[in-house]
């Protein structure tokens, strides 16, 4: 068996998330159907660097899988790109060592969150940007983001259902970029993110920007580890897994 890593993108709108689920359309299931076909109809189970939720998008998700024999990397990429549905794209396929694992090899992730801040929601962005109709203070949001940077226990920003015990993560970048008068991009880079962590952080930052929470709330949530003190989980359509960077 030969192990390959692929960099893929997908529009999460019509998926119930990345991971296979019963009677639901998922990214993993669609790709595994094609991989199994290419593997002489012998079942292939892929691994991903992380799981995205329903409605969440990806520019640079990483997966790995094992196939019989050795394949030309570009031909394999082309076959996967053309045989998977149009809301999945294969940007690159490379052969990797047999012990390489997209989830467990040391890496960093970059997430981006797009927010439309307008009185009326644009119909053209409704599937690809979250929407907030009320006033937001950029300075307050930037102050809140600064308090997220560093190594912290992010239990207070984790949704129920998180399976990992160690909730300490390091965030090296939490940045706001104003795209135009009605649009923002938030960038988060770190060595790992917990279940719905980015969306929970965003829900809190938006509340702070709207003046319904003090900037000091971020430190309070981190210290108390109390999810009830954080804001609501922000909408999924604004979130993108931008890049996975391996450090080995």
Automatic annotation (TrEMBL):
<keyword id="KW-0413">Isomerase</keyword>
<feature type="domain" description="Pseudouridine synthase I TruA alpha/beta">
    <location>
        <begin position="6"/>
        <end position="105"/>
    </location>
</feature>
<dbReference type="InterPro" id="IPR020097">
    <property type="entry name" value="PsdUridine_synth_TruA_a/b_dom"/>
</dbReference>
<feature type="binding site">
    <location>
        <position position="111"/>
    </location>
    <ligand>
        <name>substrate</name>
    </ligand>
</feature>
<comment type="similarity">
    <text>Belongs to the tRNA pseudouridine synthase TruA family.</text>
</comment>
<feature type="domain" description="Pseudouridine synthase I TruA alpha/beta">
    <location>
        <begin position="144"/>
        <end position="246"/>
    </location>
</feature>
<comment type="subunit">
    <text>Homodimer.</text>
</comment>
<protein>
    <recommendedName>
        <fullName>tRNA pseudouridine synthase A</fullName>
        <ecNumber>5.4.99.12</ecNumber>
    </recommendedName>
</protein>
<dbReference type="InterPro" id="IPR020095">
    <property type="entry name" value="PsdUridine_synth_TruA_C"/>
</dbReference>
<comment type="function">
    <text>Formation of pseudouridine at positions 38, 39 and 40 in the anticodon stem and loop of transfer RNAs.</text>
</comment>
<dbReference type="InterPro" id="IPR020094">
    <property type="entry name" value="TruA/RsuA/RluB/E/F_N"/>
</dbReference>
<feature type="active site" description="Nucleophile">
    <location>
        <position position="53"/>
    </location>
</feature>
<dbReference type="InterPro" id="IPR001406">
    <property type="entry name" value="PsdUridine_synth_TruA"/>
</dbReference>
<keyword id="KW-0819">tRNA processing</keyword>
<dbReference type="Pfam" id="PF01416">
    <property type="entry name" value="PseudoU_synth_1"/>
</dbReference>
<dbReference type="InterPro" id="IPR020103">
    <property type="entry name" value="PsdUridine_synth_cat_dom_sf"/>
</dbReference>
<dbReference type="GO" id="GO:0160147">
    <property type="term" value="F:tRNA pseudouridine(38-40) synthase activity"/>
</dbReference>
